[in-house]
Specification:
- The chain is built from seven helices and four strands.
- By secondary structure, the protein is α+β, with helices and mostly antiparallel strands.
Length: 390
């Protein structure tokens, strides 16, 4: 299309889905971070495969810095606000993770110092690619195929300045949406978003407690490892106890890691998508406000300006109608994706916790076997008594 927008979707309808609707044009896997030196920003390796003749071709690797992902997010959101009011653009979460150290060993679900951030970026990229219009936009193609994406790194984020003041005014007012479905969604969005944020905060606190418990187990293990003669029975029991405490330390640490990498990262991603829904609703509010002003202008326009005012009103009414149908489709599409994502995150979380617990229990059972082998259960013979002095 001949259009100045990087997204080039002003004349597209996301409900149509474009060619091969439901199948992403690209398949992307966010790999490990690339070695960095000095003050260089963290760089991620992306393996990109393109759909061709109904099959994904061999992958090609591109390097993207942390700021490149943020620039892509800013650009998509700005272009969406300026060109398509009803679209809900995938949003990159900027919530910090509680994972600030390296994983204990390679039994964790993901590895590396930036493992949680890598999972967050993968969730975001997947959401972008699955969008029926944004996923096929020029800006996304450039992000995945250009050797260098730094040309976008200084892109300024000025999200629709022309109606920011209107949105701020309407946020504090009881502005009813003429569409009942969208009005209901607007009213429930606040409570739902608050409930998800509370759940995320509670989950994060509970997960950090696992890490704290792991640290306690490390201290207990260290205190038990007090030395002594290796053949001394008490010393041998202390060694077994130390091994058991070390396994408990590892088990709780692993549960903490996998909890954040599964359900923790999903909740952060989901909160970001709810914020994107709020952005769309605020843009729609501004559009409705403009339409009401245009209607009033037609009613009070002088004969010579009546035709121009009516043309402006007609254009805005068409925009409202298009926004209504697009917004309904977008919310239904997002609900289905997020529900499936939440379901999978819960399954991954449960499986990872079960795996961590099973590994710990197997080691503890081995400790019990070793204790029973080294120190058989005492016989039932009577306990010898101390003879009394004559």
């Amino acid at each position: 299309m001949d259009d100045a927008s990087e997204l080039v979707f002003q004349n597209e309808d996301p409900r149509n889905g474009g060619p091969n609707s439901g199948v992403a044009e690209f398949s992307v896997q966010v790999q490990d971070t690339v070695e960095k030196s000095g003050t260089e920003s963290v760089c991620f390796l992306l393996t990109v495969r393109r759909l061709k003749f109904a099959e994904y071709q061999d992958g090609k690797d591109v390097k993207r810095f942390r700021e490149d992902f943020r620039s892509l997010d800013r650009r998509i959101r700005t272009e969406t606000a300026e060109n398509f009011t009803g679209v809900i653009a995938p949003r990159l979460s900027h919530k910090e993770t509680s994972l600030i150290d390296t994983v204990p060993d390679n039994n964790a679900r993901f590895m590396g110092e930036c493992a949680a951030e890598r999972v967050m970026l993968q969730r975001y990229v997947n959401a972008v690619l699955l969008h029926p219009i944004i996923g096929r936009s020029k800006i996304v193609e450039d992000f995945l195929t250009l050797p260098d994406f730094s040309q976008y790194s200084h892109y300024k984020f000025s999200l629709a300045k022309r109606f920011n003041g209107v949105v701020d005014e309407l946020r504090s007012s009881n502005y009813l949406d003429p569409d009942a479905t969208l009005e209901k969604r607007k009213e429930t969005l606040g409570p739902v978003s608050g409930a998800v944020s509370d759940f995320h905060n509670t989950f994060t606190l509970q997960n950090i407690n696992k890490k704290n418990l792991s640290a306690v187990m490390a201290l207990v293990s260290q205190s038990l490892n007090s030395g002594g003669h290796p053949k001394d029975p008490v010393t041998r029991l202390l060694v077994l106890s130390t091994d058991a405490m070390k396994q408990e330390e590892y088990g709780w640490h692993l549960a903490y890691w996998n909890g954040e990498l599964t359900l923790g990262t999903y909740l952060k991603h989901h909160i970001a998508q709810l914020d994107s829904v709020k952005d769309m609703i605020n843009r729609r509010r501004a559009l409705l406000h403009d339409a009401d002003k245009a209607k009033s202008a037609v009613e009070h326009a002088k004969p010579l300006k009546k035709e121009s005012a009516q043309a402006t009103l007609t254009k805005l009414q068409e925009a409202v109608h298009s926004c209504t149908s697009t917004a309904k489709y977008e919310m239904q599409r997002l609900d289905e994706l997020e529900l499936a994502g939440f379901r999978q995150a819960l399954i991954d979380f449960a499986e990872s916790q079960i795996q961590a617990a099973q590994e710990s229990y197997e080691i503890l059972l081995e400790q019990i076997r070793r204790i029973q082998e080294w120190y058989p259960e005492p016989s039932s013979s009577p306990t010898p008594t101390v003879p009394l002095e004559q």
